[in-house]
Fold this sequence. Notes:
It is a single chain. By secondary structure, the protein is mostly helical. It has one domain (4-166). It contains eight helices and no strands. Helix 2 crosses helix 7 (126-137). The chain is elongated. 19% of the residues are buried. The model has no long low-confidence stretch (mean pLDDT 87).
Amino acid sequence: MEIIVPAGVAIIVAYGLFKRVKVFDAFIEGAIEGLHALYMIIPTITGLVVAVEMLQQSGGIDMVCSFAEPLADIFGFPKEIVPMAILRPVSGSGATALLTNIYENYGPDSIVGQIASVLAGSTETTFYAVTMYYGSIGVTKTRHTLPVGLLADTTAFIMSIILIKAI
């Protein structure tokens, strides 16, 4: 297994040499483009990280969860996964911390643990992805991307509950 990456690099270099491409120059050009893309998205990512941290530290996430938990009770959803469902589209690391907390408190094989596992595997950090991908190419109007991404996350939330409860 340790040979896969070096073999892949060797094949790419050999192919480049076969096609008479200046491999190192192409590598440097690609690295410069990567650094430029990083330069373009750093302000956006920094703003997103600060906003998420402010939401967590100010209790904003807890407040949203307190409004959503009665709805979860009405529909029969476990209220223990509501914070993860709300935080997952915003922060992957925050959702992972909540997932770990769910495992510690309820166990990974409990209904809550299984639903949280499926939710973690079937949702995306939508806000981060939109920020990262659109920010890297300078797109400011996301049009339907964000609503559709959040709809997909909501669908994953609902389906994870339905599927685990059906098993």
